[in-house]
Structures
1.
Amino acid sequence: MTISITVEKDGFYEVNGAQQEPSVSLHVTPAASKLRRMLKETNELIVCPGVYDGLSARIAMSVGFKGLYMTGAGTTASRLGMADLGLAQLHDMKTNAEMIANLDPYGPPLIADMDTGYGGPLMVSKAIQQYILAGVAGFHIEDQIQNKRCGHLAGKKVVTMDEYLTRLRAAKLTKDRLHSDIVLIARTDALQQHGYDECIRRLKAARDIGADVGLLEGFTSKEQARQAVQDLAPWPLLLNMVENGATPLITTKEAEDMGFRIMIFSFATITPAYQGIMDTLRNLKNQGVVGTPAGLGPKTIFEVCGLGDAIKVDTESGGDGFVEGV
């Protein structure tokens, strides 16, 4: 069968003599696919500030970062008011990640903490499926025991290699079954308990079963970080930089020179938020005023949180909610 298509000057076209109105289909690249392309098609370091709620995520996006990281420590502190001791569960983490990932469908891809996977293989599989449906671009899953703690605290304990790989296999099988591009990041916290060589052994095994990226948590020196990149090359590695944590300060330039592909700053927003809130409330307690800088009013916060977009939607839809301004 022959199909004849004729394009006319007015932009309309004919298919076998029948006039058709042109249509345009817009395709939004899933965040997971976007992150995967960034890893495969560029050599740049993907810098992801740690965000813990909608406001911190909105601010990070307004500054122009190409990726975001939802911190488990920040999620636990902000949503539960608790220390990062494995208290946040799948519902807490997935709900927070979903909100952040969907603030802007065209925005930077979100990598999210998935702790230990919240249980055995069936729970790991459930967690992966929920993260995929939430729009998360990548996640890391670790080898700590279920009663885990922040990666930059002392006293961490890890499960056996077999149990660790069971978690990773469950994650890999699930994402493959769902045909998802979500980036699987294998994290090991074995450095404190078993030393560097065991970390490399675990990460090589994770790489061999199909993890996309590796993460050795809590480097104790820059030399150790550089060595890990060399020992696992060309597999991409993620560096978690927690200032004043277990790892000495490594800048983004140093990390890029070492060969890391992703760099997350887990406490990038929650630590200054703590400091700013503490200073402000002490000022209110002692001086009777908050002391907000001139020009920083409610509208500034709302503008960062999408006020302009809200006005545009209402106005272009024929609404009158903002005819008198804001």
2.
Amino acid sequence: MDTGVSVVGSGQVGAAPDVLRMRLSVEHDAADVSAAVAKVAERTDAAIAALRGQGVEASAIETSAVNVFRDYTEPGAPIRYRASHALTVTTKDLSGFGRLLTAAVGAAGNSLGLDNLQFDIEDKSELLTRARELAFQQARTKAAELAALAGYSLGSVSSISETYGAVPIRAFEASAKRTPGMAINISPGEHTVEVSLEVHFSWA
């Protein structure tokens, strides 16, 4: 068994986000399943056209879910069917959220819902490099302290394993159907990348 000490170091680096992602959904229920599907398709196309009209590229609008199901009703009530189409819209215009939401609501009406809103950083490579450096420095400091307490000298690194997570400080959930025509003020805040390293040092 290799002798030495294993420690975990962590490093966090924050930066302003440069990407905004919002998840919009279009829903409709009807007595006939084909009618529900047709109406959702019509209003989804209208919402996409409105977003494209606001300068959103076609490649930045992605279907994230499509559902068609029999809606729950009380026993004896007429059968209803619900269809939905969820879109993930990505933009680098962080101040354009209100304009995009207004355009989508205007096109899809009360069928539109805002399910999620999240800020992100498109390229995290530099942040990850800096976080790794901080994590390793912390791990080495811990290991040196433990080695001194045990009466050993710290040797070379024999293994390293890494985990990391990207944590947006601000994420939102809302519903455009509950706030028709209402301006929603949002703040990007800061996006944090965290790296944890488990490092094993041998004794000198």
3.
Amino acid sequence: MSMSEKAYLDLCEKVLAEGTKKDDRTNTGTLSIFGHQMRFNLAEGFPLLTTKKVPFRLIVSELLWFIKGDTNIRYLLRHNNNIWNEWAFKKWVESEDYNGPDMTDFGHRSTKDPTFKKDYDKQMAIFKKNILEDDDFAEKFGDLGSVYGSQWRAWKTTQGETIDQLKEVIDSIKHNPYSRRHIVSAWNPEDIPTMALPPCHTMFQFYVADGKLSCQLYQRSGDIFLGVPFNIASYALLTYLIAKECGLEPGEFIHTFGDAHIYTNHLEQVQTQLEREPKALPTLSIKDGVSVFDVEIEDIDLKNYDPHPSIKAPVAV
């Protein structure tokens, strides 16, 4: 078994065995632990889980969305990526502009009530169409506020200026590789009220040694079944991209958590995943000569990914 995947599966088992039952913001309920760390040696292969199929192209388009500094879901929808829809949709259905059927608590109701699910799917289809085709609608309801892309590329200062944290950290890695200040933060307390979802992955730090670039992420809150597999692959990909930009090899990805939790409506899915035998990890290649700031989805190639089938589970909004 790959030690990389074992680190994730061990976390699942630990939370099932030791987790504390807690209420949460979504009113779903969780099993939770506080403080945990996983390490992924990127020389072993690209850490995309094999015990269930994880949609890599969605991870790529989301990461490129962050890197571009974009905060509007229109870019994601143009790449058939729906993973941020619910937060923008919530803003629409709670606005005075919305005049459709009641969508209160749509996250829970759509999983339990087939009749409501039909109404929800219809309204979501209308919402997506409007985001893609109506510039004014997209500007009003597609933007998620000062989320990751904004903080990474245009952090607001008290002087009314912006800081491109990602560009600055890459310049620092290139010109002062052994600095202990290769840090990007997404947690800006002043901007939290304007964000659709406050950053779960709050800050990350790079480390250079022996010609390799490593990255450590601090994640304040981790949805272990749905979110964390994306986070692992996303930050591993970011490490690959920046290592290539800086003429380094990928080293380790270290994933450090605050509250790591399994939602109570994901328990059966986690048990199913734990019953599966991990397979060999895939490999990743990135087109030569492409800057991290200009990279497109087709420049990134995942090879030999042969996972078990996907496991569906509802998103807690």
4.
Amino acid sequence: MIDVHRLRLLLELARRGTITAAAEALAYTPSAVSQQLAALEREAGVPLLERAGRRVALTPAGVVLAGYAESVLAVLEEASAALAATRDSLTGPLRIGAFPSAARVILPPALVALGRDHPGLELMVTELDPVDVPDALRGGALDVALTFVYDYVPAAPDPALDTEPLLEEIVYLATPDATRASIADCRDAGWIAGSPGTLCHTLVLRACEANGFTPRIRHHADDFGTVLALVAAGQGVSLIPQLGIADAPAEVALTPLAARRRSSIACRRGTRDHPAIAAFVAAVRESGPETRGTGARGSWY
């Protein structure tokens, strides 16, 4: 019988290419991963791995088994969701991830509704950038997450995750005055971007490159309130989506762009119908009208 936990390790190795990276993703030691994969080879009865320089590659048999692993894990998640649906009430932890502006604007009314309707749920929120969401969901650190992509920074679908659209927002060019009406007008300006590696940092790079220049990034800030304060102080220009412009200082000129930020709800494949996750999705969608009242309006799906 093939061990399911070892299948998960094989799948992470297939995604990441090194035993060290797979171990970090699932909070194992590299030696433990090696031992578990060796045991999996014995269970399978065929070689699953081969060395390729410093990396480990899957054999043809390993590729076949990794392909089945994705479906096996999804079916097990579906089974867990079906069992949860037989219970009379929702109990236990629900680990929720959200990017900062969603954690500030979208989540609070949804959490109030969940706590009222399902007091047995232990709601646990982690704020994180969308680039970290897939690993957190696949590794089990999160059950469900609010995430997003920008038009300038699209993301390929992840076969391990289910997503559904939530909100589309206009992206604004934020400047200290109204004399710069486009990204191209800001070629010589200093820029304010998110921390390197975040999606908001990549947005600034890609948007400026699409307009024919490399931005001169002067400041890094991840909180849109801080970004707006820096813009108001004449420290640079930036790009900010609708959820981030509430209470913008009067000194900041906001020019709507054609670019959009598209938010979605993500969970592991097979868990979408889990009662706790379904309740979370419903609460988030019902909070839409309240969120629209914040002054950060967007188009809800």
